[in-house]
Amino acid sequence: MRVAMIGVGYVGLVSGACFSEFGHDVVCIDSDAARISALEQGEIPIYEPGLDELVARNRADGRLRFTTDLMDALQGAEAVFIAVGTPSRRGDGHADLTYVYQAAGEIAAEISAYTVVVTKSTVPVGTGREVARIIRSARPGADFDVASNPEFLREGSAISDFMRPDRIVIGAESDRAREVLRRLYRPLSLRDTPILFADLETAELIKYAANAFLALKISYINQIADLCEKVGADVQDVARGIGLDGRIGPKFLHPGPGYGGSCFPKDTQALMHTAQAAGAPLTLVEATIAYNEARKSAMADRVLQLLEGDAHGQRVAVLGLTFKPNTDDMREAPSLTILPRLQTAGVVVSAHDPVGMGEARRLMPDIRYCDDAYEALAGADALVLLTEWNAYRGMDLQRMRALMRRPVVIDLRNVYRSREMRKAGFIYHSLGRPKWR
Ligand code: UDX
């Protein structure tokens, strides 16, 4: 099947590459000529494990192409995906649909034979219908259907999430459109991946409802972690204990410094606005958004409290800057709130991240960045672990201890074991776990 993918951001590039791996003939289009020519040279603009090999293999086999020419890409394409960005609109937090509607207008101008126009970007409820209206009003006779196919992949594990999803959600309202999408996902349906067919609005809402629920789940365990600290309980055991209940499930119950990334903060905001505008406010989501913001600042305050004496002039080493491991993405990372707050209090921060330092440098130029994690620890009064990169799990504790001025470790991802840390001579603080454990 011939597929066109408009937008080579995270979702577009991963989805395009994975569809070509399914055996489809995929053309990815983007108006950013520099990005397209880089991709044509085999340069991948994002850090995502396995993506470079996947792109290289499918390009070599002739199933994956990159172009800036929409007309060329749409020739013979049965499905055209819109995977352009939907950033939060400055000021009001609504999803900015300019690029989506622009793509709809461009598709309308080029459409020839029957095409299914599919929104892959996370778009607010009602967008699919507006895309259909735009195409119909520009080209009243055009033979097309609009469908919604939200993507649930996570950064850092995007390819396996795409190839082995829990489910595929398709909002489509004609048999013809459903048939095209069923054929597109045939390799996954052969593996018994459930495909949920729904109407457009329902498919669009499923994506937001899922992301908001996960954000809520994380915030819930973060609050439970705070409570555990007050009452002397262990949040890891609480998470295990509740997660074994099949109705709750064990995932997304890891306490941390607050969720970040390109999806949860933006999508919860957009859903909140949709719900308010519809007259059915989602107060639980509103509370989650406010709590998550407050949590990031509270984590900085906790670090300041745990420094012995006046924070001014003390040195803090921060390990991990990206919003999660295995990505170079700094969007809405807790580090962007926590580090400036420490600096405002007079703390001297040195930091390390395996791949995020380029972007971090641009966003927070006043930090001392170190190419090596141990280098960041030299002379530190405390270590703050912010992102649970695997590289930090197996560090040499004796070497760490010897490098630091004071042996204080503040582990905001609970990656170390308290007993082991105390044995190595550290004063160890984690989230929601009793000190004596
Ligand atoms: C998320 C959704 O998981 C994915 O389905 C959707 O398509 C896009 O948004 P992503 O943002 O890539 O994916 O990362 P995810 O692994 O979900 O983590 C998001 C944030 O939540 C990170 O900051 C992470 O550290 C935090 N998190 C996650 C926790 O603090 N605790 C957890 O238990 C899980």
Automatic annotation (TrEMBL):
The active site is at C263 (nucleophile). It comes from Dongia mobilis. Keywords: NAD, Oxidoreductase. Residues 317-418 form the UDP-glucose/GDP-mannose dehydrogenase C-terminal domain. It is an enzyme of class 1 (oxidoreductase). It catalyses: UDP-alpha-D-glucose + 2 NAD(+) + H2O = UDP-alpha-D-glucuronate + 2 NADH + 3 H(+). Pathway: Nucleotide-sugar biosynthesis; UDP-alpha-D-glucuronate biosynthesis; UDP-alpha-D-glucuronate from UDP-alpha-D-glucose: step 1/1. Substrate binds at F152, L153, R154, E155, K207, F252, L253, H254, P255, G256, G260, K324. Its EC number is 1.1.1.22. Belongs to the UDP-glucose/GDP-mannose dehydrogenase family. One of its GO terms (molecular function) is NAD binding. This is UDP-glucose 6-dehydrogenase. GO terms for biological process: polysaccharide biosynthetic process; UDP-glucuronate biosynthetic process. NAD(+) binds at D30, R35, T86, T122, E155, K266, R331. Transmembrane segments: none annotated.
